[in-house]
Amino acid sequence: MPLLSDKVEAQEPGQVPSQDSPRVPSPSGAQVRVQVRAQVRVQAEDFDLGAEFAALTAGRRDIGGVGCFVGTVRATTGGPALEALTLEHYPGMTERAIAEIVTQAEQRWPLLGCTVIHRVGRMVPGENIVLVLAASAHRQAALDATAFLIDWLKTQAPFWKQESFADGSATWVEAREADDAAAARWGAR
Q1: Number of C-alpha atoms within 13 angstroms, CB side, residue 53?
Q2: What is the model's pTM?
Q3: How many domains, the chain?
Q4: CA angle 171–175–92, rounded 5-degree value
Q5: Which region holds residue 172: left if phi is over 0, alpha if psi is between -120 and 50, else beta?
Q6: For residue range 134-175, what is the model confidence (pLDDT) as tens digits?
Q7: Any domain includes 62
Q8: Strand locations in the chain (E)
Q9: How far apart are the C-alpha atoms of 54 and 166, rounded to whole Å?
Q10: 10 pLDDT higher than 60
Q11: How far apart are CA 137 and CA 88, in angstroms?
């Protein structure tokens, strides 16, 4: 089930915008809180990057850049050829954990919208696993938020991954030091 967060509040001239809402100048120069639309989905079905990008940006003239990451299943993992990757999760808990990660990103960068879709179930090499889109008025905020989101998804979102190989063997994927190091650059949770 998708989680959707909308924040819409006009900021009156002279008032100080809250710390957790992105602000952009209006034509009069007053700071205005803008709508932040964050969508989180965990699903078995594939996603359509073009459709998700269009949904995030439709009718928006305040977005100056969108950071994008699409993760796919690799055919090799350093061992035997991968036949499939199976992701399991605990429904409800996983969506809430991802929503908390998105909230962290919204507090760190002035995001104008965000979409995070993570697939579960059995996937074969070449299939999409995850989509992260982060929109902001400026490219650097969008790109940094995207990198943060994928780094924290890899280390903080509760998924269990099992790799199945062409030789019939299977193994559960352990946390990787490289993923922890990438997440650590963003500071403590």
Answers
A1: 9
A2: 0.79
A3: 1
A4: 90
A5: beta
A6: 999 999 999 999 999 999 898 888 999 999 998 899 999 887
A7: yes
A8: 3-7, 23-25, 31-33, 36-43, 65-72, 82-89, 111-119, 121-123, 128-136, 159-165, 170-172
A9: 38
A10: no
A11: 35
Predicted pLDDT at 78: 77
What is the domain range of residue 90?
35-184
Alpha-carbon span 72 to 128, nearest angstrom: 4
Q: Could you report the per-residue pLDDT of 31-58, keeping only the tens digit for each?
A: 555 556 799 999 999 999 999 999 999 9
Confidence check: pLDDT of 12 > 80: no
- CATH assignment at residue 172: 3.90.1170.40
- Digit-coded pLDDT (tens) for 79-93: 788 999 999 999 999
Q: How far is CA 96 from the centre of its chain?
A: 13
Q: Which of 71, 42, 80, 70 is nearest to 163 (CA)?
A: 80
Q: Are 10 and 34 in contact (CB under 8 A)?
A: no
Q: How much of the chain is helix, strand and coil, in % rounded to 5?
A: 25, 35, 40
Average pLDDT, the chain: 82
Answer whether 114's CB lies under 8 Å from 134's CB: yes
Specify if 21 maps to a domain.
no
